[in-house]
Fold this protein.
Amino acid sequence: MYAVIRTYLGTGAKQLFELLEVRKADVEAALRTVPGLVSYTLLNTGDGGTSITVCTDKTGSDASLKVARDWIQKNASSIHAQPPIVTEGPVIVQIK
């Protein structure tokens, strides 16, 4: 498995996560199209937020980055949020 974490901070991050919460059904529908999706979590930190995507392989994680970027561009471009800090790598342990 492979995971990607996107952390949104700074200008526009709070407003972006407010929108993501209002539109969470749309976000879920978009992320469900990612091949090999194992799990997706969206965390509101109050001043921004973090998403955690786990896929069966890096190809799926790369696809999730594109889906997220496209969704934000289509639905939240007026917010002008800064690009996320991206952390990614192979999953060593996952407990369900």
Remarks:
- The first strand starts at residue 2 and ends at 8.
- Residues 2-90 form a domain with the Alpha-Beta Plaits fold (CATH 3.30.70.100).
- The mean pLDDT is 95.
